[in-house]
Amino acid sequence: MSVDGWHTLLVLGGIRSGKSEFAESLVADAPMVRYVATAPAGDPDDTEWAARLAAHRARRPGSWTTEETATDPGRLAEVITAAGPNDTLLVDDLGGWVTVLLDPAHQPADDTATVAELAAAVRASEARLVLVSPEVGLSLVPTTPLGRAFTDALGATNRAVADACDAVALVVAGQTAWLKPPAASLPTVPAHPPAAHAHPAGAATDAAVGGSHPDTTVGAPPEPRHAAGGRGVDDVALPEVLTPAATPAPAGASAGPAGAGDWAAPTMALPMIATGLVIQPGMELPMPDDYTGPQAVDRLATLDVPGAGLGVLEQVVGFAAATQGSANPRPWASVRVLLLHGDHEGGASAGAVAGESARRARQARAGRGALARLAAENGASLQVVEAPASAPFEDGPALTGEQVEAALRYGWRLAEQAADAGVQLLVLAACGAGAEAAAAAVLAATAGAEPPAVLGRVVNDQGEIDDNAWMVRCAAVRDALHRTRRSPREAKDILAELGGGDIATATGVLLGATARRVPVLLDGPVGTAAGMVSRDLAGQARHWCLLPDHGGRPGVRLAADVLGLTPLLDLRLDLGEGATALAALPLLRSALTLAASLPVHPSLGGADSEAPAGPADEPDFAEPEPAGPGPTTVGYDQPVSPGRRAD
To answer: Is 577 a catalytic site residue?
Structure first.
C-alpha cells in the first residue's frame, strides 16, 4: 500500500471530463513514470485524431517513458505484471484497449479470459498503478451491434478492474467523486492541466474510442480531516470481532479468565474523516416482504400446537418471515452484538462515575460482565466500538458536522462487515455515560416530548436513586433544547447538536443493516433514539427493527410508540443496554424453532404426531437449518395484511 493510502487506482470519466488530467496529477511527484499507451494509431487521414496524439506527445515530461500495447491486448497484463514495487505506471486508457481487443484482426480470441487476466494482473501488481477508462454506462444503449459490443465489453472491463483496484474515482465536469475511496486525501482535478505533466506519446485519453458524456454530475467529496496518525476511515480496521468461550469462567476467577485471549484484542477508535459514502435524507433502502410475514402468521394456525399457540411471539415469527422472505422462517444462527461506547460530557452525565463506562467496555472485551456472558450463552460474537466523545450539549454542539458524517459512515461499515460475515441478526448495545440524557434530548427534538417525562431516574454506583443528578440532567437537556430552539431539525443537525457520537454511530448501523437486509434487535435509549433519527434519512430502517423489551424506560416506551414497535416482554431487567435483548433471544429463537419444525395438525392433513416415528415423519421434526440472508429488506415489527406496504 502506498503512502497515499492506495496502491492501484481506476479513474473513470466521460469525454473531456478531466479524468486524464486528474490521473496525471496523481503521479506527478513520481521520479519516473511509465506511460502505457493502449490506443491504435487510427486512420492516417484523420488529422484531428493525429493532432490530439501529437499534442499529448509534446506535453509529455522528459522523465516519462512510453510503452505501446496497441498491437497486442494481452501485453497490457504482461507489462503490469513485470513492473516492480519501485515503478509507477499510468495506463491511458482502457477504452482504447477494448477497441483493440474487439478488432477483427485479433479474433478469434477469448475476450472474457483476457479481461480476467488483466484484472488478476492489477490485483497482484507490485507497482504504483493508475488506470484511466471512459465511463459509458450512463449513455443510451447504442443502436448498432458494434457499438453495443463495445459498451458491453468496456462495462465488463471497468467492473473487473474496479474490483481489483484499491480505489476508484469518477470525474465529471472536472469534479472528483470517490466510488471506492482510498484511505488518504488525494488531489482534485487541476483547473488547467500543467504543461509539464500532459499526455505522453500514443495516448488516446479523453478522446478514446467509445467515450460518452455522463447524464449526471457528481460533486467532489469534502477535504478529509485526519485522525491521529493521519490514517483514514477505510485504512483503519474495524474493531475486532470477539467470540466468547462456550463455557464462561467462574465468577471468582482472576482477571484472565479461560479463553480470555480471544477477547483481548484492542478496540479501534472511530477515525474522524470523510469517505465516499453519501448518507442523506430520503434514501431509498429495501423494505421487507409484504406477504411472507402474514403468511407465516397464518401458517401458525395450521400447526399441531396445543392450546392457543405462541401468543405475542407470533410477532417474532412475522418479523423473521418478512426479513428472511420466507413464510417458514428459521431461527437466527449467527448473531453479533455491537457495543457502542461513547461518553457525553457536561450535565448529561451527572451522577455517572468517572471511567465507569470505559471499565464496562474493557470488561466486555475481556469476556466478563453481563453482556459478554449473555453473548457467550447465545453463541453470539461481540464487537466493542469506540464512538467519539460528545461535548456538553448545553454549551454547544455535541459533535461537529464532519464527526457526524464520519460516525454515520462508520456505523454503516460495521453493519456491512457483519453482513459480509454472514451475520443474520444484530443486537445494538451501548454503555456510554450520559447516553440516556442525550437520547431524551433527541426524543424531545423529534417527538416533542418533555425531557422530565422521558428521562429515567439516575441510579448511583451504590444502587440508590440520585434525584439531584436527575435534576442536573434535566436542566442540561432543557438548556440544550433552548439553545437549539431556532436550529434546523434535520437528522444530521439533531445528531450534531444533541445526539452525539454513540447515537450517530448507532444510526449508521441501522441504515447499513437496512441496506444489507439484516434485522436489528433494539434495547435501550441509544438504539431507539437512533431509530427516531433514522426516519428522516431512510424511513425503511424502522421496519428492520424489533424491540423485545422496553426495560421500564419512559423514553424507550415513547420512541417505540412513535416508531410503531411493540415490545414483546416486560422483564424490567437493568443490566445495561443490549443485555435484555440477549436475555430474551433464546425465547425468540424458541418461537422460531417451533414455527419451523412443528408439523401440520392431523385434522388439516398433517401426519399424526402419535404415530410411530418413521423416515417420512423425521423431516417434520428435524433441526431447522440456519436461515440465510433473505431476499427482502426492512424491519418488521408486527404482521401486516397482504398487499399492505410499510412506509
So the answer is: yes
